[in-house]
Predict the 3D structure of the following.
Amino acid sequence: MSARDEVVAAGEPWIGTVAAGQLLRIVDLEGNQAVDTLFYNAHDTAERYSAVDTIRAQGNIYLTTGSALRSNLGATMLTIVEDTCGRHDTLGGACSAESNTVRYALDKRHMHSCRDNFLLALAQHDGGLGKRDLPSNINFFMNVPVTPEGGLTFADGISAAGRYVQLRAHMDVLVLISNCPQLNNPCNAYNPTPIQIQIRGTTRSS
Amino acid sequence: MSSSTSLTQPEALTPPDELWSEQLQPGEHWSGVLRRGTSLRLTALEPRANVAAMMYNYESLPERYNMADTLKAQHTAFLTAGCVCYSDMGRVLCSITADSCGWHDTICGLSDAAMVQAKFGAGRFQQRRNEFFRNGRDSMLNELGKYGLGKRDLIACINFFTRVTADETGALHFDPQHCRGGDYVELRFEMHTLLVLSTCPHPLDPESHYRPRPVMLRARVTGPAPRQDACRLRCEENARGFRNTEMMFPS
């Protein structure tokens, strides 16, 4: 797989593959932009990123440098090798038209959402994937603190312009991203902005 | 090695509104359909029980329990009485109407074969018969397969009776004292729901021997959530979640 360097506009999806051994860098170009992300084994998409397996295996709810991203079958799909933001969420999931009606108001249903991005990108990808293939995702650059008492909130971002996260793939992975369009909470500082996606490095067979 | 599968209560002790009851053996996996208006009480028959649960809309299986939507709508990282369990379509699969232990985990997932082997050693059927070492993921795949579901449908589960907290750094802490014998939780189903259960030990339970616990299930007809209901009134989010649900069930 060749190197790629692309900018994803605010609110849009992105789908692509990263080969085993390659590096995937996601850059928060303007700061405080949630990047909803899922990974699938490129050769067997029934194997995919699992938030609960990742949390359980590392014994911690936050993702940062050193975190191994696990699949629903327990394999390490990618590891985070560099992180200039410091903490990423994997409990908050992706926004959807339906969850917006619950969380904010019935008249928010029309607003664009990450799950609409995911569903459309999967439909156009034509790999037979659909809503069954949308488990809990990662929200890079998003801040969802959990208290020892069990409280959970969407807080102001801790990211800033130019911060990035870099991952090394341990298998060939299909990457599905929604550059989050949410306008109803501080996950994007109420102002969704573009991100940059870079894929580099030599491939190796897994 | 006894292997009685389900024990029905003696008739004299059966409450008049009870639909059925079944005892889950230690390590057993189970699935069934709970109709709207049915309530199911799960009772830990011994301390330190764990019941992993996954839920699907029985009328449209791609709609299923969504951990993230459930937690963020109710601003909580755990489940207890007053909480509802949301599907990914903004609807309420079930409400938690009673809870004697105050905390149920939904962020730690299931055990798997490698973990069980590493922790407890080999425990194969050939040697142990029906006390062989089961694990959460394979147990779920077993039940999901009965409905045409599989690996793609392994969602974040609820682990009833288990309390795992996260400290300021996000590190997880398993509470071994949390579940007492006799603790119960009651679920009132607001949609026709496929419920899939496993009584395998929680993946973070550090107990050194494989020792799943038995759990009693009792189902009764209660009707769905009334107008003045603690789960509906818990927060404005839940009021809208019930509105979305009741669009499908005009009464």
